[in-house]
Amino acid sequence: MNPRQLRRAVHLLFLAAFLLFTLFPFFWMVASSLKDQTDLLASPPVWAFTPTFVHYAEIWQDDEVSGAIINSLIVASSTTLLAVLLGTPAAYSLARFQFRGKKDLWFWFISNRMISPIVLALPVYLLAQRAGLLDTHLVLILIYLSFCLPIVVWICTDQFRSIPGDIEQAARLDNANHWDIFWRIYLPLGLPGIAVSAIFSFIFSWNELLYALVLTRSDARTAPVIATSYMSGYELPWGKIMATGTVIVLPVTFFALLVSRHMVRGLTMGASK
Amino acid sequence: MEFLKIDNVVKKYGDATVIGGVGLTAREGEFVVFVGPSGCGKSTLLRLIAGLDEVSDGRIHIDGIDVTEVPPAARGVAMVFQSYALYPHMNVRQNMSFGLKMLDTPADEIQRRVAEAARILKLEHLLERRPKELSGGQRQRVAIGRAIVRKPRLFLFDEPLSNLDAELRGEMRVEIARLHQDLGVTMVYVTHDQVEAMTLADRIVVLRGGHVEQIGTPAELYDHPVNTFVAGFIGSPKMNFLSVTVASVEGTVVRVASPSLAGGSATLDLAHPVVARSGDALSLGLRPEHLVPDGPGAVRLATVLDYVENLGGQSLLYTRAAGGEAAICLLQGRHQAARHEAIALCADAAHAYLFDGDGHAL
Ligand SMILES: Nc1ncnc2c1ncn2[C@@H]1O[C@H](COP(=O)(O)OP(=O)(O)OP(=O)(O)O)[C@@H](O)[C@H]1O
Ligand SMILES: [Mg+2]
Q: pTM of the full predicted structure?
């Protein structure tokens, strides 16, 4: 084996190990969701088993699960929509205008992401309680927005900055006002960045567990909360938990695959000029 | 009647003065070219005329109206950027119609003007393409087309051809000249390129460090540069400069001495009273194309040949004068000569320039 082949082999080996590490839990979840109770608890684990869909049938009939998925959809889409709606104009102004306090504002957006969420859980709970917002979609949307808005602003500012200034100047000479420029030039050209930040927002709001657990009880419970809610009682219904997990992960996986092309472009943007 | 009038315009970025009080005018239909070294403020001045930047001081008038506070689009100017600055997500047709659409021009009028511009610029078959599917020259034409459709009263070009290869640059230069003739619109054009400046310009503005050094027709700048900077900047290869001292002055006639001159001195008639005194240190300027080896001219340089560059139809002789200055000579045809051969480079006294110690023409 010459050095180049060796390097390639080592490279592939690492890649395989990494894939195993990241994908195995998914495999285990999906596999477990298809096992019956005996196979599930078998030790050592069985690798060859007859798949069964009883757990899926079970959650299909469970109104709580479908209700939670609908809640998750409402919360995640609203958050994403609002984050993009509010974040892109902010990003445009941060990218193109000079104004007082610009640096501070920028730092504020970034520093938001430095605080560990758990630190704020209790104060947020108390605030929500005072405001009478506990167990509502609104409180989740608001709190998720505080996480997603900075991401959108951050990614889109970077994206908008990479649009050559000459193009904006040309548009100004073409009689376009700032709104036209934002709407007709920056939004279409910034689409990759907007898509990436929208995906981040959606996946974040869809997966978020901590605040959903703290702030909801029954009406606004989201999908991840439901999955964990089975974990009380004497017997752990692993099959049902895994099936719920699979159902939760499926839409975001599909969504991410759909836009992965944009995603790669967006993530590497600014890397080469 | 002056169409564009720039009145003592100043532009500062923070503490840095980028344009330090520039004044110039352009007649209606005139082709004005800005030249100057990189960073001298050519683009900045253009952007100030366009209204893309605000002046720190001074006024700008277009067609008799003070437009200093008028927003870019309302000034009736169109600009072609060095980077083309086409909208990447729009096709050629959309790129050209965008400005008209923003003005709420009726659709059939837009259609008509785009078709006309496309015809003039030979873009008809490319209207549905995106910029990235076009060659450099085609992009450039779209950028010009985008300017034409708005029927501006003033065209601004910022080094529009600098991204093109030499051949295409030549073609586009001719097209721009033709466009200027056809449209008869005032144009202000920034370039680094000698040939573009000399061939396109009705008048050239030479800028340095945010100041105007000289304004004049190409011939005026070539024949009567006001200082060594303009003399060195206009003409290619650059003018040769030699240090000389004044030996004697008699009315309009001056005799200068230098070890580089064959016989130690040369006599020049400046045709106007000479404001120099015996012993003054001057610069003697001689253009490479005016030097002829062993020619009849009265100004004779004693030089030694360093090397010869053959350009095909022309040759460049790189020489060193006896006083140590480098001197270049541009010859028609080929020149056969050995290295270190002694050559007398001669120029007509009428083609010799004298500059004082501060670089001002005598
Ligand atoms: N936005 C800005 N802020 C600060 N300085 C600037 C800005 N724009 C330009 N300058 C400075 O102004 C000077 C003139 O710039 P300008 O772009 O007008 O030069 P130019 O003559 O067009 O040069 P080139 O031939 O390289 O295009 C430069 O020194 C540049 O650094
Ligand atoms: Mg420039």
A: 0.81
Q: How far is B1 from chain A (nearest CA, A)?
A: 26
- Domain assignments of chain A as residue spans, ordered by start: 54-263
Average pLDDT, chain B: 91
**What was the pLDDT predicted at A266?**
57
- From A208, A164, A210, A157, select the one nearest A185 (Cα to Cα): A164
Report residue A190 as tokens: 């910034």
Does the pLDDT value for residue A272 go beyond 50? no
Ligand 1 and B39: CB distance under 6 A: yes
For A54-263, give the CATH class. Answer: mainly alpha
> Is the torsion defined by CA of A159, A160, A164, A167 positive or negative?
positive
Angstrom CA distances, A85 to A91, B20, B343, stand at 11, 44, 76
What DSSP letter does each residue of B222-257 carry, written as one string? HH--SBHHHHHHSSSSPPEEEEEEEEEEETTEEEEE
Considering only CA atoms, which of B197, B134, B133, B115 is closest in space to residue B161? B197
When pLDDT is cut at 50, 70 and 90, the band that residue B216 belongs to is: very high
| Cβ-nearest to B73 among A164, A166, A175 | A175
Map out the domains of chain B with their CATH numbers: 2-233 (3.40.50.300), 240-355 (2.40.50.140)
Beta strands across the sheet bearing B203-208: B77-80, B154-158, B186-190, B31-35, B203-208, B211-216
